[in-house]
Amino acid sequence: MSRKLALVTLADGADSGRVAELESAAALGQHLPGTVGGGHYTWDGIDEPVPSGFDDVADVDLVELELIDGVVADPSFAGEIKRTLLLRVEPDAPAESVAAFERDLMAMPDHIPAIVNWALSRVVGPPASRWTHCWEQEYYTLDGLKVDYMMSPHHWGLIDGWFDPEMPRKMVDLELAHVYHATDRSVLAAALG
Amino acid sequence: MIRILDELTVAPGQLAEVRQLMAEGYTAGAAERGMTLEHTWLTPPVELFDQPNTLVYLWSVPDAPAWWAMRGAAGRDPRVAEFWAEVDAHCVERQRRFLVDDPLDEGGR
Fold first, then answer.
1. Fewer CB in 10 Å around end: N or C, chain A?
2. Does A150 touch chain B if contact means CB atoms closer than 8 Å?
3. Is the Cα torsion angle B76, B80, B82, B85 positive or negative in sign?
């Protein structure tokens, strides 16, 4: 079973009234400062591209996700941070390296207790999507992401080698969508439940 | 302190080229990205003519934020990946490892 997620980018000069209308019509998570490469909102559970007539939206980067694995350690999670990383493994990456990369990512919660709920998915659609994987986590605090996750030696000392252009085993495209937003509910509990 | 260990296993007859590439194409940029060159080694300790030698470069950065600053700067500069591709053309293998003090080390006792 698959689910969908979209990264929404507003048009330059988008009308604030229309934006407020969109925010109230959809489950949009407004990206916080520090987000890279993913526009203005994460739209989890999107089922329609965008309500018709929303010219204030410049781009909806929609992906269809097929779960590899995930854990909902706290089904009653009530906030505060949902983080999404969309990435593209280079097409010539060996299958065994892709499998090792996926295993490494899924080991991160064992080393970083600040990760509460998590899911790793393959992007299975649309066919033209530039992404191959989606790595999502939920944290009780922003520091859980910005300090515990980012500064963990498991992250910079092991995982990042798949992303680092100075490392021989690098195989993830440098163009990423690293986005996070405040939330008062668990997207992953609903998705994996 | 985080140390960065580059091990460049150089094809026979290519040591001079790789040394020159590192000196002229990497060291200054690495310093700008916050890396301090601590030491270099050659092993085996004499240049071989029919087998590879390994050049070892030990760098350091002060801490994890400095590591990410280094990493971010390298990611934003496409010349860094191009540099390593040029080096790799002279190598049979290359590895980069990250090292920290062993938190359980008791001075070898």
1. N
2. yes
3. negative
CA–CA separation, A115 vs A136, rounded Å?
10
Tell me the C-alpha to C-alpha distance, in Å, between residue A52 and each of A3, A17, A22, A57, A129: 21, 16, 11, 11, 22
Give the chain A residue whose CA is nearest to the CA of B97.
Answer: A157
Task: Give the integer Cα–Cα distance in Å for B92 and A65.
Answer: 39
Pairwise CA distance, residues A136 & A111, whole Å = 16
Distance CA A141, CA B99 (A): 29
Contact A16, A56 (CB under 8 A): no
Residue whose C-alpha is closest to residue A59's, from A12, A16, A119: A12
Instruction: Decide if A167 touches B, using CB distance below 8 A.
Output: yes
Contact at 8 Å (CB) between A175 and A88?
yes
Residues in A touching B75 (Cβ below 8 Å): 164-165, 174
**A147 in contact with B, Cβ within 8 Å:** no
| Cβ <8 Å between A166 and B96 | yes
> DSSP 3-state assignment of A190?
helix
pLDDT tens, N- to C-terminus, chain A (193 residues): 789 999 999 999 888 888 888 887 778 899 999 999 999 999 998 766 666 666 788 888 999 999 999 999 999 999 899 999 999 999 999 999 999 999 999 999 999 999 999 999 999 999 999 999 999 999 999 999 999 999 999 999 999 999 999 999 999 999 999 999 999 999 999 888 7
Q: Can you tell me which residue has the tokens 């990493």?
A: B71
CB A123 within 8 A of CB A86: yes
Q: What ipTM did this prediction achieve?
A: 0.93
Min Cα–Cα distance to chain A from B13, Å: 22
> By the 8 A CB rule, do A172 and A162 touch?
yes
